[in-house]
Design brief:
- This protein has 189 residues and is of the alpha+beta class.
- The chain has one domain: Maf protein (Alpha-Beta Complex), CATH 3.90.950.10.
- Strands 1, 2, 3, 4, 5, 6, 7 and 8 form an 8-stranded mixed sheet that branches.
- The longest helix is centred in the N-terminal third of the chain and has 16 residues.
- It binds inosine 5'-triphosphate (ITT).
Amino acid sequence: KKVWIATSNAHKLEEFQEMLGADVEIKSFKDLKEPIDIVEDGKTFEENALIKARALYERVHEPVFADDSGLEVDAMDKAPGVYSARFMGEDTSYAIKNDFILRQVEGKTRTARYVCAIAYVDGSEERVYRGEVEGEISEKPIGSNGFGYDPIFYYPPYQTTLANVSDEKKHAISHRGIALRRFLEDQNQ
Ligand code: ITT
């Protein structure tokens, strides 16, 4: 089986490969001869996922997924949200972004969630699936697995951050894992 994923984020690709298994061949933006210029100007995760999936479908005319995801921090009015990749600039390290968020939640409620919208476009149908996982901003960064905000995303049932658990444990409860399983269950109906 082969599927396109409209992403240039290598960490997302790795997670999809782990979750879908080695027998699924994944292609992404890096496999295109000509780059696609995409303006991700949606206001919601769902809109942005559809924008990316439609753009790649128009190029390849084969089944395409896209993942738009991010972190909502309640004490920051749900920022960085859909701006999670661009928040403080794409070139700013996550060590700096994570420290900034730790300072923002000092003395405030620490609740946060990851959200993921997975869009699927194949020319005859368009579908979007959402997954969310509730957590808290940790007291300090912990762990080196995962990517992005994982070192500060504390998941109470595991009593540690998502950067401090195995890939399997992350996928079992993650926003991306939930959204992907919703898609797969729908396909099996
Ligand atoms: P593409 O649009 O090319 O897919 P992107 O990284 O720009 O890549 P998004 O706009 O969806 O994608 O931004 C998602 C950001 O949210 C990502 O860069 C991380 O900062 C954060 N994020 C999403 N899922 C995450 C996860 O599982 N662990 C840690 N951080 C995550």
